[in-house]
Structures are given as structure tokens and as C-alpha cells.
Design goal:
Layout: H1 25-37, E1 48-55, H2 71-80, H3 84-93, E2 96-103, H4 129-148, E3 153-159, H5 164-175, H6 191-208, H7 215-222, H8 225-239, E4 244-246, H9 249-261, E5 269-271, H10 278-287, H11 303-319
Parallel strand pairs: 1-2, 1-3, 4-5
Helix pairs in contact: 1-11, 3-11, 4-7, 4-8, 5-6, 5-9, 5-10, 8-9, 9-10
Length: about 325
């Protein structure tokens, strides 16, 4: 059965402030949050949740990342025990974490796994049509589960070696941008690795162009299971009237897809920060989202958004003083 999303409700974006703004972006964010909470005044989120979609990417074997393919499964284990920078920052910010193994290349059994790793997008499809729909549906169901369990602010994230290559490809395809303009340094790659990455994005983009108007075919061709699941998650969060704090490149690439799947979904999202990845900047511009901060964070993986979580509570607090 094809994946379908209910109509996205529109938040009430009537400005809440009656006095002159004094706190810049915090004032505007307070208005944004109040509208999505359906309140006259914003309340600090009581149950923010970080949801990490973990997956391996076949294109990592092309030497496009500074990390080894084994990094993903090691990081998943550490994150589940409270380790990694994201785990530590989330704990400090009072946010819970859910880790979803959607396509980790690991011998350990996982009920949520769609497949072990995605295909190398420069030479083959990332997913079959059935796997694409399964991944999108998984993201949709995870969003429902989080909202049903009381989440009032969602922070989606990705985890996986090589993820920025398919993400950059999707951004290039959906914004009509040339490969060299979307390829960044990702995990801290050197010049030779950057050239391999640019070539992989070029080849993947060539394969993606014939299906650029079909979001499910596009993510199946040139994306990956994590990006498909993120798209489903973001679209359904909007359907469920739940505000979302977007993180880095992969999440924003998935957001471009989610807006295609559920038009109007972007009205329920805001950007936490602007990363150093050029494709991330392009995605934010295409979504017409102004980030709260520019922290100079090179990667996504949820860390930038979690750093911003204390500002969310502050925005609600200062809004009551205006």
C-alpha cells in the first residue's frame, strides 16, 4: 500500500507580542513556539525527545568519509549507553533519546532494521521500492509513538558513516545545484577524499535526475534508509501538530523530501543552527528557514540542535516578560 500522510494542519501564526521586541530571535521563536503549542504564551517543552535514525551507506566504501564503516555500529552502542557527545549533551539539556537502527550493517538482530546498509548511490539504488516504503513507514510510526508517549518537541538526527554524500545528492537534486556546490568536508575529509566525494555525488546525481519529481523514488535511488525514515518522521510530526527542531545536513535533506510528501509540513519545523556544510545552507534557504544560531558546527547528528534546547526554554521565559 502506498505511503500516504493526512493533511497537515496550519499553525496559528498570529503574532503574540504586543510590545516592542527586545530579544531578537528569541522573541520570534517564542511566537513560533506559542503558535505550535496552540497557546497565547509559549511554555517550555516538558518532554523534548531526540530520535536518532542509524544507518550505514554503501557509498562509504568509496572512500568518501574520514570514518571507517565500523564507526556506525560502535557509535550506536555508545549512544545507547549514554555515551557520545550527543548522549552527554542531551542528558545535560534534559532530553530523552531513542536510537532507531534502520539500516546498520551489523550481525545483531534489530526489529526496526529495513536492511543491512544502503546501496552505494553512485552505482546502484540505495533501496528497493519496498524497502523505501518500509523505511518511510517506520519513521511515520516512530513519530506517532513519540507523540503518543508525550513528546512535545522533537529533535530528529542521523548516525552513520558516509551519510552526508547521499544527503548532499538529494539537496543538489531538489534545489537544482551542481555537485561541487553541495560537497563539504563532512567528517573532516582531506582534499583527495573531497574529490572522491564530489565524484560520488556527481554520479549519484546523474542517476537521481530522472526521478527528481518523485520523492519516494528519489530517496530510494540516491538517498538511504535513514533519510527515508527521517522524511516519514518529519512529515508525520507535522501531521500530529508537534514542533520539530531541525539539525544538520541529513535532517534538512530529509525535510526537503518530507515537504514534498506532506505539503505544509515545514510550518511545524524550525532550524536550530547553520552548519558549515554548503548543502545544509542551501536546504535551509530552500525551506525558507532562518536558523536560531550559527555555531560553526561541522556535522549534524543531533548535537547542534541539542545545544540549542536550553534556548527554547529561555525563549518561553523571556516571552512572558514582554
Amino acid at each position: 500500500m502506498p505511503i500516504e500522510f493526512a493533511e497537515v494542519p496550519r499553525p496559528d501564526d498570529v503574532p503574540r507580542r504586543t510590545s516592542r521586541p527586545r530579544y531578537g530571535r528569541l522573541d520570534a521563536f517564542g511566537d513560533w513556539l506559542a503558535a505550535r503549542q496552540g497557546r497565547s504564551e509559549p511554555h517550555a517543552p516538558q518532554r523534548p525527545r531526540v530520535v536518532v535514525f542509524a544507518a550505514d551507506h554503501g557509498v562509504a566504501s568509496r572512500g568518501v568519509s574520514a570514518r571507517s564503516p565500523e564507526f556506525t555500529r560502535q557509535a550506536v552502542r555508545e549512544l545507547r549507553t549514554g555515551g557520545t557527545p550527543l548522549g552527554l549533551l542531551a542528558k545535560r539539556a534534559g532530553a530523552g533519546i531513542r536510537v532507531v537502527d534502520v539500516a546498520v550493517d551489523d550481525d545483531e538482530h534489530s526489529e526496526s532494521r529495513v536492511r543491512r546498509g544502503s546501496g552505494s548511490v553512485d552505482r546502484e539504488d540505495a533501496l528497493t521500492p519496498e524497502e523505501t516504503e518500509a523505511a518511510v513507514d517506520l519513521g511515520k510510526r516512530i513519530a506517532d509513538a513519540e507523540v503518543d508517549e508525550g513528546a512535545d518537541l522533537l529533535v530528529p538526527a542521523e548516525l552513520g558513516t558516509g551519510a552526508s554524500t547521499p544527503a548532499a545528492t538529494l539537496v543538489a537534486a531538489l534545489t537544482g545545484t551542481e555537485p561541487v556546490a553541495v560537497v563539504g568536508r563532512g567528517s573532516g575529509i582531506d582534499d583527495n577524499t573531497w574529490m572522491r566525494k564530489a565524484a560520488a555525488v556527481r554520479d549519484a546525481l546523474r542517476r537521481a535526475k530522472p526521478v527528481v519529481t518523485e520523492p519516494l523514488e528519489l530517496v530510494g535511488t540516491a538517498g538511504g534508509a535513514d533519510l527515508a525514515a527521517l522524511a516519514g518522521f518529519l512529515a508525520q510530526a507535522a501531521v500530529r501538530r508537534t514542533p520539530v527542531l531541525l539539525d544538520g545536513l541529513s535532517v534538512c535533506a530529509a525535510a526537503l523530501l518530507a515537504e514534498e510528501l506532506a505539503p505544509g509540513a515545514r510550518s511545524w519545523w524550525t532550524a536550530a543552527h547553520r552548519s558549515t556544510e554548503p548543502a545544509h545552507v542551501l536546504a535551509l534557504e530552500h525551506l525558507d528557514l532562518e536558523p536560531l544560531l550559527d555555531l560553526g558546527v561541522a556535522e549534524g547528528s543531533g548535537t547542534g540542535a541539542v545545544m540549542v534546547l536550553p534556548l527554547v526554554a529561555m525563549a518561553a521565559t523571556v516571552h512572558h516578560t514582554l
